[in-house]
């Protein structure tokens, strides 16, 4: 008979810090992952595919798309509830959480926060239902961590705008119906709501990825794209607007990375108590228990950090540099947990039969996107010292 094990997040009774509603939301998303994603995600990852539209409609039915926004068909859930959903989504796969967070925290949030009433009515209900897919065009081929140097331009031509340039590493781009695209104008950086079937817009899926393979990533090319004046996001002025969208999305990453780490740790724990070497279970060796203990401590610390940031967000007091602390710590620790879990599984750690290497590969992308570790270190450093060390 196998020894009784304890789930990693049960050690400190962290569920007691959640409301009954928050636990119910988490349970619903976890069940969805168990039924709809986990049986198939290894194949999606291996094949570099994702039934994104089908999944988006299912997520829309549960109110997961833009769930922390209010009105326009959005659920109006708390920041903590949204974070718990992200945790469960990424426990399935980082690509699944990326689909939801890019839709809700980047594309939908940008329209919800900075858009006109006409833009909100046109797009948000359809996006909340999963009938319309959105993407967020900020990163460029030569400008990732330094969006202020973006090369995409928007110029006025009569009452219209004309956009030229390109965006790279854009989640959902290959299937998106609408893109929130950021461009430099003579008045600074502005945002535009771009229907992706507009003449001059083309996309190409990025292939041969070693990470986030169960996610649709693409390049957007803008060649003389003519848009009416009404396409501009009226309240988005300057680079602060897209950066605020990134802050919104990073909060989901703070939680989501913990989901990948938890799934790895639960897998390694179950493996260690059943796999026998030298006449006893792997879990019976001191070195293995030391690894499991250290990883569990870091997972719980990250969870407490995420929960604290979520409560601050719900109180309207969350600051960007605080989100940087969460993103820096939780993604970095999640990646280390995935790597350690892989050592416990030995050769099986690289097998697609187990989720550990898939999570580890995915977290290499999560470590980089929406702010590299170095960028978040500089954000925190600037807050501590009052000095800008970005350039």
TrEMBL record:
Annotated ranges, domain Acyl-CoA dehydrogenase/oxidase C-terminal: 238-384
Acyl-CoA oxidase/dehydrogenase middle domain span: 135-225
Cofactor(s) this protein cannot do without: FAD
Positions of the Acyl-CoA dehydrogenase/oxidase N-terminal domain: 19-131
Keyword Lipid biosynthesis attached: no
SUPFAM superfamilies according to UniProt: Acyl-CoA dehydrogenase C-terminal domain-like, Acyl-CoA dehydrogenase NM domain-like
Zinc found in the keyword field: no
Keyword annotations: FAD, Flavoprotein, Oxidoreductase, Transit peptide
Family that this chain belongs to: Belongs to the acyl-CoA dehydrogenase family.
Protein name: Acyl-CoA dehydrogenase
Organism: Micromonospora musae
């Amino acid at each position: 008979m196998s020894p009784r094990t304890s789930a990693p997040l049960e050690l400190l009774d962290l569920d007691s810090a959640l409301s009954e509603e928050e636990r119910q939301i988490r349970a619903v998303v976890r069940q969805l992952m168990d039924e709809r994603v986990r049986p198939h995600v290894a194949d999606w990852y291996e094949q570099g595919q994702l039934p994104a539209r089908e999944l988006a409609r299912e997520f829309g039915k549960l109110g997961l798309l833009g769930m922390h926004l209010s009105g326009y068909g959005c659920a109006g859930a708390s920041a903590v509830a949204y974070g718990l959903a992200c945790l469960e989504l990424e426990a399935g796969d980082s690509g699944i959480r990326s689909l939801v967070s890019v839709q809700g925290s980047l594309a939908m949030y940008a329209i919800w926060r900075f858009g006109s009433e006409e833009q909100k009515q046109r797009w948000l209900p359809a996006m909340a239902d999963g009938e319309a897919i959105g993407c967020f065009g900020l990163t460029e081929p030569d400008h990732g961590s330094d969006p202020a140097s973006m090369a995409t331009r928007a110029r006025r031509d009569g009452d219209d705008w004309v956009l030229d340039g390109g965006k790279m590493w854009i989640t959902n781009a290959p299937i998106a119906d609408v893109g929130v695209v950021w461009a430099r104008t003579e008045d600074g950086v502005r945002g535009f709501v771009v229907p992706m079937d507009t003449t001059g817009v083309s996309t190409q899926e990025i292939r041969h990825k070693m990470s986030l393979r169960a996610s649709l990533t693409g390049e957007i090319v803008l060649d003389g794209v003519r848009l009416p004046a009404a396409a501009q996001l009226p309240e988005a002025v300057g680079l602060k607007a897209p950066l605020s969208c990134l802050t919104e999305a990073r909060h989901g990453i703070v939680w989501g990375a913990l989901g990948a780490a938890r799934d790895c740790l639960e897998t390694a724990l179950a493996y260690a108590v059943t796999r026998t070497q030298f006449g006893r279970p792997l879990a019976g060796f001191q070195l293995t228990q030391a690894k499991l203990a250290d990883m569990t401590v870091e997972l719980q610390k990250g969870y407490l950090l995420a929960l604290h940031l979520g409560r601050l967000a719900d109180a309207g007091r969350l600051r960007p540099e605080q989100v940087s602390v969460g993103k820096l710590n939780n993604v970095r620790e999640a990646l280390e947990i995935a790597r350690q879990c892989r050592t416990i599984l030995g050769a099986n750690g690289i097998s697609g039969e187990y989720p550990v290497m898939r999570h580890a590969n995915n977290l290499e992308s999560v470590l980089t996107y929406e702010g590299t570790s170095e960028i978040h270190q500089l954000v925190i450093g600037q807050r501590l010292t009052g000095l800008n060390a970005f350039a």
